[in-house]
Each structure stands twice: as structure tokens, then as C-alpha cells.
Amino acid sequence: MRATRLNLMRAFAALVIVTLLAGCGFKLRGSNGSYRMPFHTIFLGVPDTSALGTELKRNLRAADDVVVLDKAEGADVQLVVISETRGRQILSLNNLGRVREYLLTYTFNFRVMDAKGAELLPATEITLKRSMEFNEQEVLAKEAEANLLYRDMQSDLVQQILRRLAAMKAPAPQASVPAK
């Protein structure tokens, strides 16, 4: 009887604390997934067929007041892709010498330039790694799992790029050219 009453009081106290936190407007910084970018227009130097480029464009368009341009002319900043690679390495073997585990890697190198060609963010490399167990009797399922892991790494990569873009120094304002 006494233990039940004590548990009920604890549950009520926890409910009161959660209600107070929710009511006061508390939320983790960046928890809504949007970032305040220090620029208004950006050109992404990624191919149109790139899944990473498509996801990055979608996330940038969701940010407040950011316009993704199709041409570098007129953009406040340009994201220049140096390289984008995916890799698969053998991580471990079983006692018969067959693959037991792979290490999947996704590496993205880029730099950010302003409209005048000055470097705002020097060459930056982001490398993500995931390990994946392998079973040769489930090859198709493991290929689907690898694709899912690569998509997860791509989403993580986009979020890391957005955080780096949001943290960089704002580009110098462009001087307007007087009309003649």
C-alpha cells in the first residue's frame, strides 16, 4: 500500500516537471532542424542527378530566406564540390576466410567561396563510417542494408554540411554596379 502510494507520487511529480518544461517553451537548440544561414543565395556545384545534392537543396530551401540558384552568377556563396566517394572495406573475416563484416565509408570534400572568389570555408572533408555484418546466404538483403546505411550517412552528411554553412562567417556584401 505504502509502496504504491510512493510510486504514484513519483509519477505525479514527473508529470508535473514534464508539463512545466513543455509549457515554458524549453527546447533543445537546433532541435527543429532549421538553421539560420549567413547568406541569402547559394549556388551548389553538385550534379543534378546527385541524391546528396537533391537532399541538400531541399534542406537549404527549407531554411529561412535562402534561395538556391541554378547559376553561380549572382549567388552570395558557392559550394564547390571537390570529391564525393563511397567505399567498402573488409573489416573482419570468419575462421574460413570469408567476409564477416564490412566497413562502409562516405567521404565528401568541399569548399565554400563568396561571389568574388574569396574562400569563406576552406577545403573541408567529412568522412562517415558504418560497420555492417555480412552473411553470404543473404546477399540481396545485405545489399539493401548497405544502400540504407549509405542513405543514412547521406542524411547525416547533409546535416553536417548545413551546420558548417550556418557557422561560417557571413560573406562581404556585394557592391552594386552603377548603371551607365
TrEMBL record:
Keywords: Cell outer membrane, Lipoprotein, Membrane, Palmitate, Signal. PROSITE patterns: PROKAR_LIPOPROTEIN (PS51257). Its main location: membrane. Pfam families: LptE. It is a lipid-anchor. It is found in: Cell outer membrane. PANTHER family: LPS-ASSEMBLY LIPOPROTEIN LPTE. Component of the lipopolysaccharide transport and assembly complex. Interacts with LptD. Belongs to the LptE lipoprotein family. Together with LptD, is involved in the assembly of lipopolysaccharide (LPS) at the surface of the outer membrane. Required for the proper assembly of LptD. Binds LPS and may serve as the LPS recognition site at the outer membrane. This is LPS-assembly lipoprotein LptE. It comes from Massilia terrae. The lineage of its organism: Bacteria, Pseudomonadati, Pseudomonadota, Betaproteobacteria, Burkholderiales.
